[in-house]
Write a structure and sequence with these properties.
2 copies of one chain form a homodimer. Chain A is α/β, with parallel strands linked by helices and 204 residues long. The first copy, chain A, is 43% helix and 12% strand.
């Protein structure tokens, strides 16, 4: 075999998700964080992203910062727009998982039906629902952006937990009681889950 | 330093695109193929994807197969819907490039303004417009799916090249005369460009 013959794979058509996973040495998945505003979803997901990168894992975080101003910049917060928001996020997360990445999403995603629809798009066993379980009163007492205060004052409509429902997961793969344990402990539990389930191996 | 101290990066906040690129050993970019139906965009992009994977590069192809049935399954082919189609694709491609991947897109994308809008979203120097330049009469003579025949018969409306315009790129980064050179040659030219521009190194 000549050097060039390694390129013979060209002619066999589409690269598969399995080819990409072999290359990256991990299995693509979607780690879907859900929880109230102020529960710590983004903080934990950001810390998990950093921990995975430190371990040499290909990972990417979809959150409000990179989705709400870009792909979903045309969407507001009505029930219909929230459905479309989560639908697009789940489609993009599915593409990232197909690319072989450990894909993290951090959105309130308050409705069970929307999260179930997201789960249904991802290949079976690759969707990891992580409930960041912090009581409303704790989230409200933190209120770093004064969102709860503004919602209570009627300045923000349809605010989850105040004037719109939050439906907790029924059977999440992981529950993180982030009011009781540290961000570091939350990250370690999530990493342990990914290792146990064979999505990646331990870091260097 | 203890083993655990490698995780100290947690506390420094968001992982950057640079961190991800260092990990993957390449620079994220968007290789945007454009050309008429039947020009060979998808065939070349698929072969390039396979060649990059064979070289150990993290890459992902966005094309009709994984976009039109998923994220953009709600869009038709009016001018407005075509704009939104390309807008969403460019947003997703930008996320993939931000994740550090060599991101390939293969869509007709007939309008200059839409491709320019896509280019404007991607960080400067990271958007590589590849014009698959094949004359209409060659594309029409191939017509594997009988789309041109149906468009000529009036059975498909707004068909690019027949009843809707195709605006060739003015200053594409790369032109592939795919009627005159082989798919393998097209792939080699694209790979050479990526190497020259420092998006990745040569394969094993």
């Amino acid at each position: 075999m000549t050097e060039a013959s390694t390129n013979v794979v060209w002619h066999t058509g589409h690269v598969t998700a399995g080819n990409r996973e072999t290359l990256l040495g991990q299995r693509g998945c979607v780690v879907w964080f859900t929880g109230l505003s102020g529960s710590g979803k983004s903080t934990i997901a950001t810390a998990l992203e950093a921990a995975l990168i430190a371990d040499g894992r290909a990972t990417y975080l979809l959150d409000g910062d990179n989705i709400r101003h870009g792909l979903n910049g045309d969407l507001g917060f009505t029930r219909e727009e929230r459905v479309e928001n989560i639908r697009r996020i789940s489609e993009v997360a599915t593409l990232f998982a197909d690319a072989g990445l450990i894909t993290l999403t951090a959105f309130i995603s308050p409705y069970r039906t929307d999260r179930q629809a997201a789960r249904n798009k991802v290949p079976k066993g690759r969707f990891i629902e992580v409930f960041v379980d912090v009581p409303l009163e704790v989230c409200e007492s933190r209120d770093p952006k004064q969102l709860y205060a503004r919602a209570r004052a009627g300045e923000i409509e349809n605010f989850t937990g105040i004037s719109a429902p939050y439906e907790p997961p029924v059977s999440p793969e992981l529950v993180l009681p982030a009011a009781e344990i540290s961000v570091e402990d939350c990250v370690n539990r999530a990493k342990a889950y990914l290792l146990e389930q064979g999505f990646c191996t331990a870091g260097p």
